[in-house]
Design brief:
The chain is an alpha/beta fold and 319 residues long. It contains 13 helices and nine strands.
């Protein structure tokens, strides 16, 4: 059944400027769980958390803080040499994350970011950063994921390892205030298909934008590195379909989208007045809710999804 008033998901989306600021303010208490400069780090998660891991891995390595890889927790290459694993798990109960932390316990340092201090991950990891102020009632992740990335960005900023051109968390929060307040254009609310594109750290955001639209609204979305757009994905673009770039737009791409009749959305490039790409993700979250509600769906209770994936032992053994 559709909600009778504003959804809980919409309220959580709107709270993100405040939770990002709080993440930056509370950084000192969370440092024990975070990577040290020079460490070779693997960041793991599932679903949304995996995409946030990809964004952070690019930021950290590009900023010179240390070699960083990102993996779905189920695909971590056991035996490869790392100094630390950093797990991102809102619920703290995700089976694949807990299994991995159990396998490596005692052999390398582990940290975790979670929203709930009363969950198994607090015992599975060596150190845990609890962002309980960003926890969510909604099944679909929005503010926890972006707040986790805000904390990680604040850490890089504090360590003078924020890549050139990436804004501070305080600047990103100001941009997020715009993103939650400005109306969404008819060109996107009435589109039938969305291709999200990103470069470097924003490719992880593009993946997450596409996932959010599928989860909340069942929308037809795809996501690719921006320079891959011409290598096939452009074939799906047409009138009534959107190519949405998070971050800078590669040279010539706008002309390519126009040539095939698509709608280009590009409001988070490098120009001074452009949105921070993480704030642009907030716009995609809002669009997902708007599309779900327009279809009579309840974005707080998306079909086929649960807050956490906890597998029975037989599935864990066969996975």
């Amino acid at each position: 059944m559709p909600t009778s008033g504003p959804s809980r998901t919409a309220a959580e989306i709107a709270s993100q400027p405040a939770t990002w600021r709080r993440a930056a303010e509370t950084l000192p208490r969370h440092r024990a769980a975070l990577p040290r400069r020079g460490e070779r780090v693997a960041v793991v998660g599932c679903g949304t958390s995996w995409f946030i891991a990809q964004a952070y891995a690019q930021l950290r390595e590009t900023g010179g803080h240390g070699e960083t890889d990102a993996f779905a927790a189920s695909e971590f290459p056991l035996g490869r040499g790392y100094d630390r694993i950093l797990a991102i798990t809102r619920s703290g109960t995700t089976t694949e994350v807990l299994d991995l932390l159990g396998k490596v316990k005692g052999s390398l340092a582990t940290g975790a970011l979670t929203a709930d201090p009363a969950t198994p991950v607090t015992a599975a990891a060596d150190a845990v950063a609890v962002l309980d102020f960003a926890d969510e009632e909604s099944v679909v992740q929005t503010r926890f994921a972006t707040t986790a990335l805000a904390l990680l960005r604040a850490h890089l900023e504090a360590e003078s390892a924020l890549p050139a051109g990436v804004r501070t968390v305080q600047e990103a929060a100001r941009h997020a205030e715009r993103a939650v307040a400005e109306p969404l254009s008819d060109a996107i609310t009435e589109a039938e298909q969305f291709t999200f594109l990103g470069t470097g750290w924003t490719y992880g955001l593009a993946l997450e934008a596409g996932l959010k639209m599928r989860e909340a609204a069942g929308a037809w979305t795809e996501a690719y590195p921006a320079m891959e757009y011409r290598h096939g994905p452009i074939s799906i673009t047409a009138p009534g379909r959107v190519a949405w770039v998070l971050g800078p737009v590669p040279a010539g791409l706008a002309d390519d989208v126009a040539r095939v009749g698509g709608t280009l959305v590009a409001e988070s490039g490098a120009a001074h007045g452009d949105l921070d790409p993480l704030a642009d993700l907030v716009r995609a979250q809002r669009l997902a809710v708007a599309l779900a509600e327009a279809q009579g769906q309840d974005p707080d209770r998306p079909r086929n999804l649960t807050r956490s994936v906890v597998l029975p032992s037989t599935d864990r053994e066969n996975g």
